[in-house]
Amino acid sequence: QVHLVESGGGLVQAGGSLRLSCAPSGVVFSINAMGWYRQAPGKQRELVATITSGGSINYADSVKGRFTISGDNAKYTVYLQMNSLKPEDTAVYYCNAQGLLLGGTRFGSWGQGTQVTVSS
């Protein structure tokens, strides 16, 4: 299994910015797609943004124009730049990656989550 390491969460005032990053700690053969999801207290986990190895990007409507997802294919690292943060963006943010291990086995992994808190 692949372990994903996330960083960059924290506490910020409304209107502020944070940058999340995520990368696998083990060896992978390839990654097809990575993305960010979030889960607020009492709510289901929801998609925030995803990016494929080919560069296709998808955003939730609620973050379009404020969040930017990007990736470094060489480092298998994905970033989420979050600007103009709102209190409703407060959640635990989870990284997800899907790809192939050495030997061709498919994997899909989640990070441990990083807390983002936006104060009003």
Give an account of the 3D structure.
The strands form two sheets. Strands 2, 4, 5, 6, 9, 10 and 11 form a seven-stranded mixed β-sheet that branches. It is built from no helices and eleven strands. Helices cover 0% and strands 57% of the residues. The protein has strands spanning 4-7, 10-13, 18-24, 30-39, 46-52, 57-59, 67-72, 77-82, 91-100, 106-110, 114-119. Strand 7 (67-72) and strand 8 form a beta hairpin. By secondary structure, it is mainly beta. The protein is elongated and about 50 Å long. The N and C termini lie far apart (39 Å). The model has no long low-confidence stretch (mean pLDDT 95).
Topology:
Blueprint: E1 4-7, E2 10-13, E3 18-24, E4 30-39, E5 46-52, E6 57-59, E7 67-72, E8 77-82, E9 91-100, E10 106-110, E11 114-119
Parallel strand pairs: 2-11
Antiparallel strand pairs: 1-3, 3-8, 4-5, 4-9, 5-6, 7-8, 9-10, 9-11
Q: Indicate the percent of residues in helices.
A: under 10%
Largest sheet geometry: 7 strands, mixed
Secondary-structure content class: mainly beta
Radius of gyration: 14 Å
Taking all residues together, what is the mean pLDDT? 95
> Number of DSSP strands?
11
> Strand content of the residues, in percent?
over 45%
Low-confidence stretches: none
Number of helices: 0
Cα distance spanning the termini? 39 Å
Choose one word for the global shape.
elongated
* Helix/strand order, N-terminal first: EEEEEEEEEEE
Summary, kept brief:
This protein has strands spanning 4-7, 10-13, 18-24, 30-39, 46-52, 57-59, 67-72, 77-82, 91-100, 106-110, 114-119. It contains no helices and eleven strands. By secondary structure, the protein is mainly beta.
